[in-house]
Each structure stands twice: as C-alpha cells, then as structure tokens.
Design a protein that fits this description.
Strand order of the largest sheet: 1-2-3-4-5-6-7-8-9-10
Radius of gyration: 20 Å
Largest sheet: 10 strands, antiparallel
Structural class: mainly beta
Protein name: TOM40 protein
Subcellular location: Mitochondrion outer membrane
Distance between the termini: 41 Å
Shape: extended
Strand content: over 45%
GO biological process, one term: protein import into mitochondrial matrix
Order of helices and strands: EEEEEEEEEE
Low-confidence stretches: none
Number of helices: 0
Number of strands: 10
GO molecular function: protein transmembrane transporter activity
Keywords: Membrane, Mitochondrion, Mitochondrion outer membrane, Protein transport, Transmembrane, Transmembrane beta strand, Transport
C-alpha cells in the first residue's frame, strides 16, 4: 500500500479423511520512524504487537493474542536495555500468566565470549528456572 503500510491475506484449505475446512487470515503492519505495529486476525483469533525503540539503549514491546479455539487471551510486555559502556544487555519480560523473566548478557572482552545469566519465575505454577551459559563466537 505504501512504504509504511503493508497489508496481506492468507487462505489455507485443508481436506483430509476426517475433516475438511478453510482458514482465512488478514494481516497488516505499519512502520514508523522508530516503531512497528502489527495485527493478524482470522477465524482462529487475533494477534497484535507493538515494538518501540525509545533510544539507542532502550527498546520495549507489547504483544496481545486471543484465540477463539481455546478461548484464551494472553498479554506480554518485554524490554531490552543496552549498556554499551559495560558491554552488557539486559532483557526482561512479564506476561498475563504471571511469568516474569530476565536475562543478562555480558560480553567478556577481549575474549570472543558472552556470559549469559537468566531466570524465569512462574508465580502460578510455583516454578523457578535459572540458567548460566557461555557462548563462544
């Protein structure tokens, strides 16, 4: 449509021994100078997302998904904070299922390696996941 606006659609037809049917989905994306918004909608539900780069160090995003098949909705919020002076990146997320997560990446200069620390807490499921990793590139 334009350099900022993209629209599209998809039609999928499935025919099997037991079931037969079609799914039609519409999609759109609108891009601004430092943000992107998307929307997909069809018989199965809808999915919308928004990403915004506030400046060189801070990025945020939100996502909403609703399914007509499972009758569930989910909302997620995420952010990324870059600290170039310390060679570090911090990412975090929170969703409507009360799962909170964070990942810290530290580039180990002058080595070609990145140290990664991560933790996720599922408040409803009483679960905690922690991890430590080293990536050599």
């Amino acid at each position: 449509m334009s350099p900022q606006l993209v629209l599209g659609g998809e039609l999928v037809y499935h025919r099997g021994r037991v079931e037969e049917g079609g799914i039609f989905t519409l999609a759109g994306r609108y891009t601004g100078p430092n943000w992107v918004a998307t929307l997909n909608a069809g018989k199965g539900g809808a999915h919308a997302s928004y990403y915004h780069q506030a400046n060189k160090q801070i990025q945020v995003g939100v996502e909403f998904e609703a399914s007509t098949r499972t009758q569930e909705t989910m909302f997620s919020f995420g952010y990324q904070f870059d600290i170039p002076e310390a060679n570090m990146v911090f990412r975090g997320t929170l969703n409507s299922r009360w799962i909170v997560g964070a990942v810290l990446e530290k580039r180990l200069s002058p080595l070609p390696a990145v140290l990664t620390l991560g933790a996720f807490v599922n408040h409803r499921g009483n679960k905690v996941q922690c991890g430590l990793g080293v990536t050599v590139a």
